[in-house]
């Protein structure tokens, strides 16, 4: 069956209700400090790459088993399963792009049957987090590039894509997609996104698609 479309979405505060790195920060006893950096980065006040490095450094020393604990505190946003199932039934592919971490995002993606995943990966040595990130950082440019790459792999034009997120680092992909959606988003994102969803229900994406 030919692919009819592609949805690419952010994870933290979009696919799930929480910010994964903030949950890790709470476990490390630096929750308030991490959450403050996250909020400023999502509003576009801080460079995302630098903000990520600062927050990850605060996690140094946490045991790698912490990911299992944090997963228990992550909750899918209402409508997540229905959205993915419906889009798959319509012939869509679904991808996740996250400034969060593969260590938790992969599990979320597996549960939903997600087709593509791009996230950051934390360095672990001797069973503990080193406070560093491995490999390339997922930036706003990375998110946009993933949208373009995955569309191309499926023979789709950008007009046949949907992108959705809540933070400033989601804006380039939101503005590149055929349908760009600010989901319960920060003010800067609402101002610049073509579409808005302001209730925490992911099935509202289907209403936007059906109105087209």
Précis, in short:
By secondary structure, this protein is of the alpha/beta class. It contains 10 helices and 7 strands. The chain has a single domain, classed as HAD superfamily/HAD-like (Rossmann fold), CATH 3.40.50.
Q: Overview of this structure, please?
A:
- By secondary structure, the chain is an alpha/beta fold.
- It has one domain (5-211): HAD superfamily/HAD-like (Rossmann fold), CATH 3.40.50.
- The chain is built from ten helices and seven strands.
- It has a seven-stranded mixed sheet, with helices on both faces.
- Strand 5, helix 8 and strand 6 (179-183) form a beta-alpha-beta unit.
- Helix 1 (20-27) packs antiparallel against helix 2 and helix 2 packs antiparallel against helix 3.
- It is globular, with a radius of gyration of 16 Å.
- The two termini are 22 Å apart.
- The model has no long low-confidence stretch (mean pLDDT 96).
- One of its GO terms (cellular component) is cytoplasm.
Structural class: alpha/beta
Instruction: Give the overall shape.
Output: globular
The CATH architecture classification is 3-Layer(aba) Sandwich
| Low-pLDDT residue intervals, each spanning 5 or more residues | none
Count structural domains: 1
Number of strands: 7
* Proportion of beta-strand residues: 15-25%
- Biggest sheet statistics: 7 strands, mixed
Radius of gyration from the alpha-carbon trace, in angstroms: 16 Å
Give the class-level CATH name: Alpha Beta
Termini distance? 22 Å
Taken in chain order, the helices and strands follow as EHHHHHEHEEHEHEHEH
InterPro entries: HAD-like_SerB (IPR050582), HAD-like_sf (IPR036412), HAD_sf (IPR023214), PSP (IPR004469)
Catalytic activity: O-phospho-L-serine + H2O = L-serine + phosphate; O-phospho-D-serine + H2O = D-serine + phosphate
Enzyme class: hydrolase
Keywords: Amino-acid biosynthesis, Hydrolase, Magnesium, Metal-binding, Serine biosynthesis
């Amino acid at each position: 069956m030919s692919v009819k479309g592609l949805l690419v979405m952010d994870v933290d505060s979009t696919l799930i209700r929480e910010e994964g790195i903030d949950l890790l920060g709470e476990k490390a006893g630096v929750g308030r400090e991490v959450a403050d950096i996250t909020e400023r980065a999502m509003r576009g006040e801080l460079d995302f790459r630098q903000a990520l490095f600062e927050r990850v450094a605060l996690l140094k020393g946490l045991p790698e088993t912490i990911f299992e604990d944090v997963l228990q505190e992550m909750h899918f946003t209402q409508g997540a399963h229905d959205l993915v199932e419906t889009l798959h039934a319509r012939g869509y592919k679904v991808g996740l792009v996250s400034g969060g971490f593969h260590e938790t995002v992969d599990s979320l993606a597996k549960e939903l049957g997600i087709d593509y995943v791009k996230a950051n990966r934390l360095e672990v040595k001797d069973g503990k987090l080193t406070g560093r990130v491995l490999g390339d950082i997922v930036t706003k440019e990375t998110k946009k590039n993933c949208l373009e790459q995955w569309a191309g792999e499926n023979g789709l034009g950008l007009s046949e894509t949907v992108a959705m997120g809540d933070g400033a680092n989601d804006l380039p992909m939101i503005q590149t997609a055929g349908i760009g959606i600010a989901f319960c988003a920060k003010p800067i994102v609402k101002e610049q996104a073509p579409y808005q969803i302001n209730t925490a229900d992911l099935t509202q994406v289907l209403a936007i698609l059906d109105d087209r």
